[in-house]
């Protein structure tokens, strides 16, 4: 469970366009009596009147055909600072501290718009209805998929914990497969963190301490292709062997394949990515487009569990159409080369 904490936020400065420091004055027109201009009756008077009108328009800044002053020139403003983001971990993911949980067995959710809040689930959760919400819930599953979203269903899960370790290495991934949003979720004890095969958002979450069975090659986020509209942002995905697994070998933080087709509109943004041979191993496929890997922080070091250096090969192995920018090594801030 997590402890309450404040999230540091950056500040933004709004710069207003500067105004002129001199008042614009219009020369007075010659008048008869109090309120109307005189009529020119000689060439000299006409030239004087036209000269006064020219000065008046010039003093108003030129303007357009409608007589309004021209807009002030824009002032270059400094780029706003990016807001500070706290790395997800035990204090800001999972069930909030102080939440009282009610014991529950396995759940099969078949009611549209159903809300589950504050349960301690021993067993797995199967979502079979649209727009289901799970909040502040711990799920400890001893089977293949701790949380599975079936065809035609959709899920939002927030401030929850998914623990696959009771399965002894059977649990394949914390959440599968598509049509879900996961926020501030603590996922551990599964072979893969999540399966993301389309219409998935994972943000502000912590994937860690994957359960490495003898033949497992653990991935933080895995897709076997034909995936579209997947957003992974501001997460800490750590597949390093910290000595809590049971053999096996961490594979990639992202393993995005094309077995079932091309991948489009993937956004991997502002995450902390630790471990694996290739940290991001991703193939867009022949028709994939709109894929981005930007502003991420890549970890490197030696795993205490097995003594391997990570990453084993490098940070990025990208195939097809991918855009990269702003990626750095977490320990130094040095740019990560694509």
Outline the low-pLDDT stretches. Answer: 3-83
Q: How far is it from the N-terminal to the C-terminal residue, by CA? A: 37 Å
Number of strands: 32
- Rg over CA atoms: 31 Å
Strand order of the largest sheet: 3-6-9-12-15-18-21-24-27-32
Instruction: List the total number of helices.
Output: 1
Shape type: globular
Q: Which percent bin holds the helix content? A: under 10%
Largest beta-sheet characterization: 10 strands, parallel
The mean pLDDT is 80
Strand content: 35-45%
Secondary-structure-derived class: mainly beta
Features:
338 residues; mainly beta; nine-stranded parallel β-sheet; 1 helix; 32 strands; 5% helix
Topology of this structure?
Layout: E1 31-32, E2 36-37, H1 43-59, E3 102-104, E4 107-109, E5 115-117, E6 119-122, E7 125-127, E8 132-135, E9 138-140, E10 147-149, E11 155-158, E12 161-163, E13 173-176, E14 180-183, E15 186-188, E16 192-195, E17 200-203, E18 206-208, E19 217-223, E20 228-233, E21 236-238, E22 249-256, E23 264-269, E24 272-274, E25 278-283, E26 291-294, E27 297-298, E28 301-302, E29 309-310, E30 314-319, E31 322-325, E32 328-329
Parallel strand pairs: 3-6, 4-7, 5-8, 6-9, 7-10, 8-11, 9-12, 10-13, 11-14, 12-15, 13-16, 14-17, 15-18, 16-19, 17-20, 18-21, 19-22, 20-23, 21-24, 22-25, 23-26, 24-27, 25-30, 26-31, 27-32
Antiparallel strand pairs: 1-2, 28-29
């Amino acid at each position: 469970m997590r402890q309450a904490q404040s999230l540091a936020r950056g500040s933004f400065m709004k710069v207003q366009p500067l105004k002129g420091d001199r008042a614009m004055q219009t020369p007075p027109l010659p008048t008869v009596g109090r309120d109307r201009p005189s009529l020119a009756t000689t060439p000299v008077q006409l030239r004087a009147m036209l000269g006064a009108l020219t000065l008046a328009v010039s003093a108003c800044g030129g303007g357009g055909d409608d007589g309004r002053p021209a807009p002030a020139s824009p002032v270059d403003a400094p780029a706003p600072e990016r807001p500070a983001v706290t790395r997800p971990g035990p204090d800001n993911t999972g069930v909030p501290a102080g939440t009282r949980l009610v014991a529950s067995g396995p759940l099969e959710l078949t009611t549209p718009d159903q809300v589950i809040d504050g349960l301690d689930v021993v067993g797995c959760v199967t979502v079979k209805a649209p727009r289901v919400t799970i909040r502040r819930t711990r799920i400890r599953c001893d089977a293949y998929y701790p949380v599975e979203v079936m065809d035609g269903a959709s899920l939002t899960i927030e401030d929850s914990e998914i623990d696959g370790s009771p399965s002894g290495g059977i649990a394949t991934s914390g959440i599968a497969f598509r049509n879900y949003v996961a926020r501030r979720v603590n996922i551990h004890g599964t072979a893969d963190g999540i399966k993301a095969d389309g219409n998935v958002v994972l943000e502000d979450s912590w994937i860690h301490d994957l359960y490495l069975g003898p033949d497992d090659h653990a991935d933080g986020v895995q897709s076997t292709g034909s995936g579209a509209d997947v957003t992974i942002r501001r997460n800490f995905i750590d597949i390093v062997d910290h000595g809590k697994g049971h053999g096996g070998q961490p594979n990639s933080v992202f393993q995005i394949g094309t077995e079932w087709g091309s991948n489009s509109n993937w956004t991997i943004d502002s995450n902390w990515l630790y471990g694996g041979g290739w940290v991001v191993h991703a193939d867009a496929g022949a028709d994939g487009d709109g894929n981005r890997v930007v502003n991420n922080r890549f970890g490197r070091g030696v795993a205490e569990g097995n003594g391997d250096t990570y990453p084993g090969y490098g940070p990025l192995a990208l195939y097809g159409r991918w855009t990269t920018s702003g990626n750095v090594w977490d320990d130094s801030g040095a740019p990560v080369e694509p």
